[in-house]
C-alpha cells in the first residue's frame, strides 16, 4: 500500500539534499546555519512520529531562532545558464505545461478510479489519506515527465528544487509552524478567552452581530496567524460552536464552510501568509513586497462582507 509516510520520507530527503547543497556552497556566508536549518526540517519529516514530542518541539524552536536571527540565506544554485533556459523554453513551447497538468490529472485518477483497487486484499492507495497520496503520486509523475520533456537529469531537478526553496527561505516552514500554533492556542484555552471577551463586549443576542463577529474573527485571526486552519479551532471554539451552534442552532457544516471562506479573506490581507503573498512578490522581483496584498484588498474586504450575509441567511440550511 502506498501510504502518506512514503511521501513524508521523500520530502525529508529533498530537504536533506537542500541542506547538503547549502553546506557545500562556499559562496553562502551563512552556509552552516542555513544547512542546519534545512537539516533540522528534514529530520522532522524523516523521523516523523518516532520523534518524542518534546524533541520535535525543541527542533521547531531551534529553527525559529535560526530564522529569527536571519541566519538562513540563499546560496548560489547550480542553475542552467540563462541563454540555455531560454532556448529550451522556446524549443519546448506549450509542452512545458504537461508536467504541471499531470499533477491534477493523476490526483483525480487516484481519488476516483483507483480508490477501490486492491493488491492481495490491501488497498493500493491509503484510504485514510486518499487525496493527498494521489497528489503525491501526481507530483512524482510530474517530476518524471519534467525530466523526460526537458531532457534533464533528476539531479538537475533536485538542484532546481533547492534553488526554489532557497528563494522562498524560511517562509516554506511558516504554514507548518502556524498550524501547530493554532493547535497550541486551542489546547491553551484561547478559544474560551475569546468567547468570554466577545460575549462580554458585544451584543451577541443579535444573530447578525454573532455572524459578523464569527466571520470577522476568522479573518482577523488569520491576519495575525497567517493560516486559516490555525485560526479555525480558536474562533470556532470561542464563537462558532458555543454561540452560532449552541445558541442559534446553526448548521455546523455551513458554519465551518463559510468560516473558512472568511479566513481565506484574511489570508489575502496578511504578510504572515508569506507563501501566498510575500514569496510571489520576491520570486517576481517586485519592488514593493506588499504589492500582492495591495492588489488583493479590493477583493478580500467585500468578500468578507458577502460571507457575513451568506452565513446570516444560510446558517440553518
Quick rundown:
The chain is mostly helical. 72% of the residues lie in helices and 1% in strands. The chain folds into 2 domains: 1-172, no CATH class; 189-314.
What are its keywords?
mainly alpha, 2 domains, two-stranded antiparallel sheet, single chain, 15 helices, 317 residues
Any overview of this molecule?
With 317 residues, the chain is mainly alpha-helical. The chain has 2 domains: 1-172, no CATH class; 189-314. The protein has 15 helices and 2 strands. The protein has a two-stranded antiparallel sheet. β1 and β2 (122-123) form a beta hairpin. α1 runs antiparallel to α2, α1 crosses α7 (154-168) and α10 packs across α12. The two termini are 39 Å apart. The mean pLDDT is 87.
Number of helices: 15
**Could you describe the largest sheet, including whether it forms a barrel?**
2 strands, antiparallel
Strand content: under 5%
Counting structural domains, the number is: 2
Number of strands: 2
| Largest sheet: spatial strand order | 1-2
Radius of gyration: 22 Å
Distance between the termini: 39 Å
Order of helices and strands: HHHHHEEHHHHHHHHHH
In the predicted model, the low-confidence regions spanning at least 5 consecutive residues are: none
Kindly report the average pLDDT value.
Answer: 87
Q: Structural class of the secondary structure composition?
A: mainly alpha
Overall geometric form: globular
Query: Helicity level, as a percent range?
Result: over 70%
Amino acid at each position: 500500500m502506498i501510504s502518506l509516510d512514503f511521501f513524508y520520507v521523500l520530502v525529508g530527503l529533498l530537504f536533506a539534499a537542500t541542506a547538503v547543497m547549502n553546506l557545500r556552497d562556499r559562496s553562502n556566508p551563512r552556509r552552516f546555519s542555513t544547512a542546519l536549518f534545512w537539516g533540522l526540517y528534514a529530520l522532522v519529516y524523516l523521523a516523523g512520529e518516532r520523534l518524542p514530542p518534546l524533541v520535535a518541539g525543541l527542533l521547531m524552536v531551534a529553527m525559529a531562532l535560526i530564522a529569527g536571527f536571519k541566519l538562513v540565506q540563499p546560496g548560489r544554485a547550480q542553475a542552467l545558464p540563462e541563454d540555455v533556459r531560454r532556448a529550451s523554453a522556446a524549443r519546448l513551447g506549450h509542452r512545458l505545461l504537461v508536467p504541471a497538468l499531470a499533477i491534477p490529472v493523476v490526483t483525480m485518477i487516484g481519488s476516483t478510479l483507483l480508490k477501490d483497487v486492491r493488491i492481495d486484499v490491501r488497498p493500493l492507495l491509503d484510504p485514510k489519506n486518499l487525496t493527498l497520496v494521489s497528489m503525491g503520486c501526481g507530483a512524482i509523475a510530474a517530476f518524471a515527465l519534467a525530466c523526460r520533456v526537458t531532457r534533464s537529469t533528476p539531479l538537475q531537478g533536485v538542484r532546481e528544487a533547492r534553488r526554489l526553496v532557497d528563494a522562498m527561505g524560511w517562509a516554506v516552514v511558516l504554514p507548518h509552524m502556524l498550524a501547530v500554533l493554532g493547535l497550541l492556542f486551542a489546547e491553551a484555552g484561547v478559544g474560551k478567552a475569546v468567547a468570554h471577551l466577545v460575549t462580554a463586549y458585544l451584543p451577541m443576542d443579535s444573530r447578525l452581530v454573532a455572524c459578523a463577529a464569527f466571520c470577522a474573527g476568522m479573518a482577523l485571526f488569520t491576519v495575525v496567524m497567517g493560516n486559516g486552519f490555525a485560526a479555525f479551532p480558536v474562533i470556532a471554539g470561542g464563537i462558532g460552536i458555543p454561540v452560532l451552534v449552541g445558541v442559534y442552532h446553526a448548521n455546523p457544516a455551513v458554519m465551518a464552510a463559510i468560516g473558512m471562506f472568511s479566513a481565506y479573506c484574511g489570508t489575502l490581507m496578511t504578510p504572515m501568509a508569506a507563501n501566498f503573498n510575500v514569496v510571489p512578490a520576491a520570486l517576481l522581483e517586485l519592488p514593493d513586497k506588499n504589492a500582492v496584498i495591495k492588489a488583493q484588498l479590493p477583493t478580500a474586504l467585500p468578500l468578507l462582507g458577502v460571507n457575513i450575509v451568506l452565513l446570516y441567511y444560510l446558517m440553518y440550511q
